[in-house]
Amino acid sequence: MIEPFTPEPIRWVAEDGTPVRPLPERFTPELLRDLHRVMVQAREFDKKLINLLRMGRTTFYAQSSGMEATQVGLARSIRVGHDWVWPYYRDQALGLAMGVPLFEMISQCLGTNTDTCRGRQMPHHFASRRYNFVSISSSIASQVPPAAGSAMAQKYLGTDEITVCTFGDGATSEGDWHAGLNMAGAAKAPALFICENNQWAISTSIREQTASETIHIKAKAYGMPGFYVDGNDIVAVMEVCAHAAEWVRAGNGPALVECLTYRVGSHSNADADAEKQYRSREEVEAWVARDPITRIEGLLAHLGHPVTAEERAALISETHRQIDEDVQRALDSGEPDWRIIFEDVYADMPTHLRDQEAFLRAEQTGGQG
Ligand SMILES: Cc1ncc(C[n+]2csc(CCOP(=O)(O)OP(=O)(O)O)c2C)c(N)n1
Ligand SMILES: [Mg+2]
């Protein structure tokens, strides 16, 4: 039985990989291996994208390293392509686990012709129409009120879809967050709110962020259950998120899940983490020791299906090979033409934009027309 408002995060697997309660049957070695594969891919995606950033191929990237169990576990707890997902900017492991192709994510980061947004979004803000993965907004918590609206629409249309909305701990201090949760609660709309509590909002710690003991208790104020889960334990994340998702889908109204995890890398490429300005190395090292990938490997070993060093190395090199190939293919597609800034908004372009387009064309052709 999964209860809301537990004083401690719900946990299934201890840090050394030993189950602390009976493992549900669905967690077969095959499923665990598949989850492990996506988590490793996401970790390697971070490393490769940081390299591309250093090479000047892209200009923004925010790592999800350390948070893979939360994001992959969430992806595997919802109906992918059916439910609607309003993500935030650190959700690449969520996207990958939902099935968004690496190639699409890489193209978006590079802003090439193969980018579905064709360079018109900030890098690392991918979207996927096929997977109902809504375009990311960098303005903290700005996705929460529209997600509440999306859930209200689902309720009024009588579908069995739900809306999933993710955000960080810092987002819970924004007015938008409270407005969105209040609206979804009052409308009893099918929204699943997921807080990826990585305990830092750039350099602001969770203790400075709020006087509340936890994030999930804020759910009480909005008339919904708040679940508290160990976000580095993928079994616990999947059990809790699947339970909350089905509770929401059954028409009971929204729910909030707080996944307690940690960002082991820097906030983004614009961060003083490396300079050790706001958190101690001891703190980071303590969380590196609770790594979610190590934990699932410990569980597989406990079950008698260990991931060997060779298998892990092969998985990593295959991921790197795939990413290198996709990067090349994206770069080969070239940069979008400047004219696209005038496309995809108006069926009939207003006069002032037509004038601007003509002006730019003249500039491009050196005043020759
Ligand atoms: C409205 C708004 N205010 C400030 C910022 C600058 N900013 C970018 S990320 C961030 C921290 C967010 O922390 P959290 O919600 O915990 O997510 P995390 O980055 O830790 O995953 C801030 C303050 C912003 N993007 N939008
Ligand atoms: Mg945070």
Strand proportion, as a percent range, falls in 5-15%
C-alpha Rg, in Å?
21 Å
Mean pLDDT: 96
- Within the largest sheet, what's the order of strands? 1-2-3-7-6
Structural class: alpha/beta
Account of the protein in words:
- This protein has helices spanning 29-54, 68-75, 92-98, 102-110, 144-157, 175-187, 206-209, 234-252, 281-288, 292-302, 309-332, 351-364, and strands spanning 84-86, 163-168, 191-197, 200-201, 204-205, 226-230, 255-260.
- It has 369 residues and is of the alpha/beta class.
- It folds into two domains: 29-335, Rossmann fold, CATH 3.40.50.970; 337-369.
- α8 (234-252) links the parallel β6 and β7.
- α1 (29-54) crosses α11 (309-332).
- The longest helix is centred in the first third of the chain and has 26 residues, at 29-54.
- 43% of the residues are buried.
- Bound molecules: thiamine diphosphate and magnesium ion (MG).
- The site of magnesium ion has 6 residues, from β4.
- Thiamine diphosphate is lined by residues 90, 138-140, 167-171, 198, 200-202, 263, 267.
Question: Could you provide a short overview of the structure?
Answer:
It is an enzyme of class 1 (oxidoreductase). This protein is of the alpha/beta class and 369 residues long.
